[in-house]
Amino acid sequence: MIVAFIMAKVESMKSRSVLEEIRKMDEVEEAYLIYGAYDLLIKCTFKTPEALSSFVVNELRKLDGIKDTVTNVCAPD
């Protein structure tokens, strides 16, 4: 199991609507609005690295309002 924390920059007027859409996604365990350089913190789990890549490129980055993402993959225990 791959655990990743993804930080996203979002257009300011769309933060809450983007958060709601992200929370509906199957891969997402938790998602929060945050303060700082990024607007959202998203905890996700994946079965393969390919699934992670596909999620970020084909789903997350295509959401209206997402400007940028940074993916942090957790080291195994």
Describe, in plain words, how this protein is organized in 3D.
The chain is α+β, with helices and mostly antiparallel strands. The chain has a single domain (2-73), classed as Alpha-Beta Plaits, CATH 3.30.70. It contains 2 helices and 4 strands, in the order βαββαβ. Strands 2-3-1-4 form a 4-stranded antiparallel β-sheet. The longest helix is centred in the C-terminal third of the chain and has 12 residues, at 49-60.
**How big a fraction of the residues is strand?**
35-45%
CATH fold name: Alpha-Beta Plaits
The residue fraction in helices comes out at 25-40%
Side by side, the strands of the main sheet go 2-3-1-4
The tally of helices reads 2
Class inferred from helices and paired strands: alpha+beta
CATH architecture: 2-Layer Sandwich
Shape: globular
